[in-house]
Amino acid sequence: MNAPAKDKTLFTEAELNDLGSRAFQGLGLPAADAADVVRVLVLADLFGLSTHGLSRIESYGERLQVGGINARPRITVETVAPALRRVDGDNGVGPLVGMHALRAAMAAAETCGVGVAFARQSNHFGPISPYGLMAAQAGYASVIGSNATTTIAPWGGSDARLGNSPLGFGVPNPGGDPFLLDMAMSVVARAKIRAALKRGEAVPDSWATDASGRPTTDPRAALDGFLLPIGGHKGYGLALLVDLFSGLLSNAAYLTHVKSWVDAPDEPQNLGHFFILIDTRRLGSTQWLTDRMKDFAAILHASAPADPRRPVIVPGEIELDKMARQRQEGIALDPAVVALLRSHAAKAPA
């Protein structure tokens, strides 16, 4: 395919998987490990989450090259109870550690009906929705989370003490699209604030604080300050819960113990993740779940939209529609990302 589309390039899913795998092999990963990493990142691109897709070759690649990430980790899985697994990522690429943890939780859930995996010694593992989709396709409902570098001040505080940690939920639908919710803990991403600054526009005072911890509408002051959590003090509590599960309970770093990959790219971050999976097949038949999920979505879709241009949707619909469309029409990738992928791929073993 590989044809231009405006300022981007179009690829088939197979082409991206091949190019991405060769690029990560060029950065030193074994072929099987590179395939795991690329599976997560290409799904992110299919969902339209380009900031968390193969564009991550830049940040992951820089850290692999300076030794901040281990290109050939010895990832271990320990069974600490019938349904409980502990994964040591040995400072591997985050999506690789994430895939090992997902498989460990699946194996536990297949045996026990419920499976939980805690991962440590990891790095940024991409968005949660690809893991949620893979779990749902295998019949598992999921709760998945990770901690992150500190960018949010504690509620009422004036310096960054917790990360913008992602949290996701998934519920399979054997007869249609699964429910997929993937969210971070801040009201908005810093990218939206940077865009407002570029346009010379003010931002809502609910988005961020200045460096002193005071809410601000000035985008420059907001970028010098801290992101605000969703739902005020309730979002703060939820962000702490994600870090307790992914960081503290997994025996990874937590809060300010997490290293910044920007400030210290050559040092391990020791991020933590958690995967909680439920085998829905233990709860009822495939038809039972299909009928209930279809009715669940129909109740929501039947609500008359306040804005006719924006019908009511179920979380995951936008991403899954984008995935179906891009699988038909091609996946758009920025030329700079393509050039970097090809540069690393050229170093891959023959």
Automatic annotation (TrEMBL):
GO terms for molecular function: oxidoreductase activity. The keyword Kinase does not apply. PANTHER family: MALATE DEHYDROGENASE, OXIDOREDUCTASE-RELATED. This is Hydroxyacid dehydrogenase. Belongs to the LDH2/MDH2 oxidoreductase family. The lineage of its organism: Bacteria, Pseudomonadati, Pseudomonadota, Betaproteobacteria, Burkholderiales. It comes from Bordetella flabilis. Keywords: Oxidoreductase. The keyword Oxidoreductase applies. Transmembrane segments: none annotated.
